[in-house]
Amino acid sequence: MTASLPPRSIVDTHTHTLFSDGVGTFEQNADAALAAGCRVLVATDHLTLPRIMDPDGEVQVIESELVAHRAAWEAARDTHPDLECIYGFECDWYEGCEENIARWSAGAQVRLGSVHWLGAQDDGAWIDDSSNLSIWEELGPDEVWRRYSDTWCRACECPLFDTMAHPDLAMRFANEGFAPTIDLAPLWDQMVACAHDTGKCVELSTAGWRKGVGDYYPAQGLLERFFRAGVPITVGSDGHVPGDICDGIAAAYDHAARIGYRTVEVPRADGSWEAMPIA
Ligand SMILES: [Zn+2]
Ligand SMILES: [Zn+2]
User: Fold this and answer.
1) 5 occurs within a structural domain
2) Fewer CB atoms inside 10 Å of the end CB: C or N, the chain?
């Protein structure tokens, strides 16, 4: 039985390495986490994707590297006994993803559910690719938002996902000319109902601040709705460089506590999840 964590322990449930689209090794991320006072570090590289979504293997851990990925994580875990290391993946939702995710993420303890891709596998687009904003230009932000929230609700129904990462990622370019003009409240309410009805956690991500969104993911109004509906939260940095591991986690606890949250959900190395007090 694992002892409970002290309240407000620094925990980062969303981090990337150079195996996917990050920069650091597992060793470098673990070193950075310890320097930031971290107790629990969850590795969540982007899981393997169908070839058509990422033909050059730029963002994912490609299938032929899954074994080496696991081995490198285990090596870093074993050289950092003072850090509780958890193996996970950030998993894209797309039509028919469940079998792929189950196969490619076998042995993972944590699976973040993410919607970065809208549309069919062979006729869709990334919504968070700053080098290709064509979906934003073609559909406009209001239609992207409608499709995003519908897709997000379908993603909530995937039983493999433990927590839904950066729930309103569609805010990504709101300060770069692609802000929605519609009232988001009905879409937010739909998302909250989906998370609630499927028993999902959602992530409070500090990445929005680093991406120029000017808020957390989710924005405050959406986080307040999740709280009122009793949807639990995990907290993550989505750090892609070692210097961003654990970035803003303590401030995120303060923010969640102001909204009313008293605990955050933390995966533990024994396979359990713990509701850790933050206030
Ligand atoms: Zn993501
Ligand atoms: Zn991520």
Assistant:
1) no
2) N
Who contacts 150 (Cβ-Cβ below 8 Å, separation ≥6)?
none
- 69 within a domain of the structure (yes/no): yes
Tens of pLDDT, residue by residue over 150-183, are: 999 999 999 999 999 999 999 999 999 999 999 9
Ligand with minimal distance to 244 CA: 2
Is residue 3 one of the residues assigned to a domain?
no
Q: How far is the CA of 114 from the centre of ligand 1 (A)?
A: 6
Taking alpha carbons only, the member of 264, 230, 204, 236 closest to residue 41 is: 236
Cα(123) to centroid(ligand 2), Å: 23
239 CA → ligand 2 middle, Å: 7
Give the range of the structural domain holding residue 129, as residue numbers without chain letter.
Answer: 10-277
- The answer to whether position 4 is within a domain reads no
Q: Alpha-carbon distance 254 to 252, whole Å?
A: 5
Dump pLDDT digits (tens) for 65-115. Answer: 999 999 999 999 999 999 999 999 999 999 999 999 999 999 999 999 999
User: CATH number for the domain including 43?
Assistant: 3.20.20.140
Work out how many domains the chain is built from and give that number: 1
Contact 112, 88 (CB under 8 A): yes
User: How far apart are the CA of 166 and the centre of ligand 1, in A?
Assistant: 7
